[in-house]
Amino acid sequence: MQNDNDYALIIGIEEYKEMAKLNGPVNDAKDFLEWACNETGGNIPEANCFLIQASKDPYKPLQDDIDTGLETIIGDGSKGYRRLYFFFAGHGYGVAWDTNGLCLPGWTSLRRRNALSSKAYLDYVVESKFFTEVYFFLDCCRDRMINASALTPSLGAILPAGQNVTSLVLFAADFSSKAYEDPELDPNTKVQGYFTKALLQGLRGAAADKNGNITADGLTDFTKRRTSELAALRQKTQTVRPLFSGMGTMSQLIIKEGINVEPTSVTITFISEGLVNLIGRDLNVIWEKQISKDEISPIFTLDKGLYILENTTTGNNITIKIDGTSKHKEYEF
Prior knowledge:
Rossmann fold; alpha/beta; 4-stranded antiparallel sheet; 5 helices; Immunoglobulin-like
């Protein structure tokens, strides 16, 4: 059964009038849309998902295009909805510790206010009390710009309230810091932002706990760790920052339940001989063998968790981390 009371507003902007062209936001937006509509993901009806199309000639979207999308979702406000996902990928800048400027395509060094205020849009949605849960996922930079503020929505809450509304904002980077995307090394390779890649890996199951539930806490922790790992592969530093408000705690807020995380197949090529043990998540030995140099292990099917591979002859050991992001891993030991 689809989540008929869930909605998504998704924006990906690559072409800017003055700022450098980006290569990942459209891919990121389409990938998030795919997750949102997929029955194993957000399971939202396609009619409830709004992808704001960007263009260069003319430069769009304008603020009115985004406000119109939000207005279409809300309607007359008479119906209570469960959940709103607001996803943005593009250029951005830090306005305050809790606020991002989400740059529109027409932003220039003179039109420094041509950006949306993430906080103002979040406040509007929360105060309007149309949704009980609100998620803002913002894949953009947060470095500072002199005299650059951001726009509030043209929509206004009729009866500002906000009680019993829970919200989670995930900023792709620390305040005053940059967010990054893959370098465009190969025209056949899909470029993505590190934050979005990590976020979607988490939402697709890598952030699930042992009960198959993805909580706000679990998603945040996974996205922070995975984003940092992806950025570090390119000698970059990027730290995701959450902003949570509302009912209960992040560990109590379940974003997705009943996730079936597929195990990972693992093979090991041994570069030294000796008696080798594979120790499982419960610290019990699950495989033991006297191996020879250049021998290849059988294929191990491992569930999410940490495993230890140790050579009791040489005293060497490594940790095998299975986090649900890969179907197969290979190691040398």
